[in-house]
Known about the structure:
Blueprint: E1 9-13, E2 20-28, E3 31-39, E4 44-49, H1 60-63, H2 88-100, E5 105-106, H3 109-112, E6 114-123, H4 129-132, E7 139-143, E8 149-157, E9 160-170, E10 176-178, E11 184-189, E12 195-204, E13 207-216, H5 223-237
Antiparallel strand pairs: 1-2, 2-3, 3-4, 5-11, 6-7, 6-13, 7-8, 8-9, 9-10, 10-11, 11-12, 12-13
Amino acid sequence: MIGRWRHVIHIHFLPGKNFAIAYFRGKMNYWYSQIMMLMGAFQILLCLSMDSWAQAWTSSHMTNPGIRSSPLLLTQPVPGYSLPPLPTVRLGLLSVVRAMLPPLTPAHAEQLLGKWYIKCWAGDMPTPEWKWRDPLPPFTFERNNLEELEFRMSLTKPIGCIQFKLTLYEGEDLGTFLTWWRHAIHIHFLPGKNFAIAYFRGKMNYRYYQIMMLMDCTLNPNIESLRIFKEFMRSKMGQTVKTKKPPHAEACDLPRDS
């Protein structure tokens, strides 16, 4: 569903269609926020916020104006409102929500410096299928002459080897990096910090897209990192999305005056 302000809200039924999950992630007041809620057939049962600055509500706030909204933990009672005993389907959903959020650590700029490889990626941007099989060279995070964090990748083009550069500015929230166009890229480490997930969802050419990739310090295979990446990918994009595993290519040699 698309609201008046072009905000995209995703609503999906649970088995039986007596419960549904509504999920939103988008830009409001120049910040990206995300929120989700579990809906029952007769009332809003629970609302989960995935951002520290956002708040969660229950239907009590709609029916009792004297209750102010406040941040909630799953185990905290709501003043003036008591949830009925949760049936099995609701408990099952809460465990699924927890499972969808792997133990990720927000990345600092200094922790990202060095060479990285793209192990796999996923996204809904319109990309020709033949491009999925394009070999990808490694990339680096480095400091430029102004001490700003910079993404660099050397690419082979018909005119020779060129270097793609993208300056990233650390946002107020840990793990968030902003481009010159104010696109927010979220980078989080997997346990061990040898792997990381970079995730973007934003508006380009008047449409919302999302893209994510699994980054690795080496080319060594790791089943656990791929499993966590797929869980994260499905929690954002659904069960039908597929990963793309690009072949590896060596970085080309830049001219000495680059």
